[in-house]
Design a protein that fits this description.
Number of domains: 2
CATH architecture of the largest domain: Orthogonal Bundle
Strand content: under 5%
Radius of gyration: 19 Å
Order of helices and strands: HHHHHHHHH
Distance between the termini: 48 Å
CATH superfamily of the largest domain: Tetracycline Repressor, domain 2
Largest sheet: none
Structural class: mainly alpha
Number of strands: 0
Shape: elongated
CATH class of the largest domain: Mainly Alpha
Number of helices: 9
Helix content: over 70%
């Protein structure tokens, strides 16, 4: 960004700009994402958009970072819930898949941006760091809620599970804006089978 918004009015304007970009990504795709189109959708003058973002790439960068931050917060919340034990964790895989599927539903532009991988090298590195963070959280949950033992085997399994889930979640939401439930159920079954050898999860 050219500058961080300080006043509430400016922050609200930036939020509208990012929400407009998210909506355009979701309904029209990356190709339709232009500065003028974003400004029209956000109902702000083009000059106002340029006050905060030098170009379309900067808008994409800010939006991508917001998505990554949301995923970081989601895994943190899941780990905290597992540690407190105040929610139903009888099906850890189902619980985690459902949580991330709901995040996809609330961020419709994410699929369009990530499917096309319209990411700068810096954002690609941030995305990989995000996957690492999620995998670490998955490990903690599997140790606490699924009887897994910490170690290199669980570390690799969590990395594989996260990347498998990433691909199939994108596929499910490419098939349906709300997430194809058949694909989501297949993902849950696949992960349960894969992780059963390291946990007390049923292998079905």
């Amino acid at each position: 960004m050219r500058r961080e918004p300080q006043q509430a009015r400016s922050r609200a304007r930036v939020a509208r700009i990012l929400a407009a970009a998210d909506a355009i990504l979701a309904t029209e795709g990356v190709e339709a994402l232009t500065v003028r189109r974003i400004a029209e959708r956000a109902e702000v003058p083009v000059g106002s958009l340029y006050q905060f973002f030098p170009d379309k790439g900067a808008v994409i960068d800010a939006l991508a970072r917001a998505y990554i931050s949301d995923f970081d917060a989601a895994i943190d919340a899941l780990v905290a819930s597992a540690e407190r034990g105040d929610d139903d964790w009888s099906d850890p895989v189902g619980r985690m898949v459902d949580a991330f599927a709901e995040l996809y539903r609330s961020r419709p532009g994410y699929v369009a941006l990530w499917t096309g991988r319209h990411l700068s090298p810096e954002l690609a590195r941030a995305d990989e760091a995000n996957n690492q963070l999620i995998a670490a959280g998955v490990q903690q949950i599997l140790v606490r809620k699924a009887g897994a033992a910490s170690g290199p085997g669980l570390d690799l399994a969590a990395q594989v599970a996260v990347r498998t889930a990433d691909a199939l979640l994108q596929y499910a939401f490419a098939r349906s804006p709300k997430g194809d439930e058949v694909v989501l159920d297949e993902l849950k079954g696949l992960l349960r089978l894969y992780l059963a050898r390291l946990t007390n999860l049923p292998g079905a």
